[in-house]
Amino acid sequence: MNRRALLAIIENMERNDFMIAAGKGALSGAYLLHGEEEFLKENAVSSALKLIDPAMRDLNVDILETAQATAVIAAAETLPFMAERRVVLCRAMPKDDDAARLAAYAEKVPESTVLLFYIKGKADGRSAFVKAMARLGRSVDFAPLNEIEARRYVQKRAKAIDAPITEQEATFFVSLAGTDCAALYNELDKAASYAGAGNEITREVIAKIVTRDLDYVVFEVLDQFIANRATDGLRTLNGLMENGEKPLMIAERLRDKAKLTLQARQLLDKRIGKDEITRRLGVSSGYAWRVSDSAKRLSTAQVAALTDAAEALSRVTTMQLTGQAKAEDALIRALMLLAHR
């Protein structure tokens, strides 16, 4: 294996690997926890703290609000008291000289210490400290879930709370609730309570109980038409309007998503990296993933059709105001430009 391939492996510690290691009691040394999926990141911290017996946590857990190197190192070097591990949680990113000292220290943390640098949001990949942690395989990016991960999360969580759900219904659940982990957790608890202990969460329960993530559902409409599933797209679109969403608002959101998808496609064609695409699109990494995933699947004919549809969606408001067409009719015509391409 060449050095570049080896570094590619070293620089990526998956969030699931971290959670598995925590569950097995196998965490040791320093880790940088960052990324936009705050709910899972908080769960990761909770899993690390469970390594310490609750009765001994006051003696074996240090929580630091600043990343001052001397204080962090002193806490990490302290031996556990009547326990196998101690946890040091630092809720700040080290800077300047502290960053250099802690980057060097990260390789020397005692095996009896779990040192966590917990960062809100995604860490700046240009930081020397972040690069150093990545090289050590100690940077854990809690990126937003994709649809497959979200579906698996729903099924795993449903099993844990004795509320069985099939793979097909879990997929439907995600299509309404989106992929934000906190939302999935809360919506699943609502659905399970409604279904009753031990009862299956059915499509009927999901449709009645789950709060729709509007942006996610609008994206689903666009994807369905792009995939030439106009019947499914119209059904989802009608569901939005039956829930009180106005055709003009839907048209505006669809237009914005179409334009973002086309922009992402142009960047992908130029072989721009994922992080740079996110920066240029000016949206969250989860949203950028959704856009990029749609964009990379577009054929040349679909790119042309999406361009036409984006322009038609931009004219929906004008067509209603000038009496040329009702907003709902203009919206459907614009979407039908995507069909049969």
Can you describe what's shown?
With 341 residues, the protein is of the alpha/beta class. It is 61% helix and 7% strand. The chain has 3 domains: 3-141, Rossmann fold; 147-209, Helicase, Ruva Protein, domain 3 (Orthogonal Bundle); 214-336, Zinc Finger, Delta Prime, domain 3 (Up-down Bundle). It has helices at 3-10, 15-23, 38-49, 57-60, 69-77, 96-105, 128-135, 147-160, 167-177, 181-195, 203-209, 214-226, 230-242, 247-269, 274-281, 285-296, 300-314, 316-321, 327-336; strands at 29-34, 61-64, 86-90, 113-118, 139-141. Strands 2-3-4-1-5 form a 5-stranded parallel beta sheet, sandwiched between helices. Helix 8 (147-160) packs across helix 10 and helix 15 crosses helix 16. The longest helix is centred in the last third of the chain and has 23 residues, at 247-269.
Structure characteristics:
globular; Helicase, Ruva Protein, domain 3; 19 helices; 341 residues; Zinc Finger, Delta Prime, domain 3; disordered N terminus; five-stranded parallel β-sheet; single chain; Rossmann fold; 3 domains
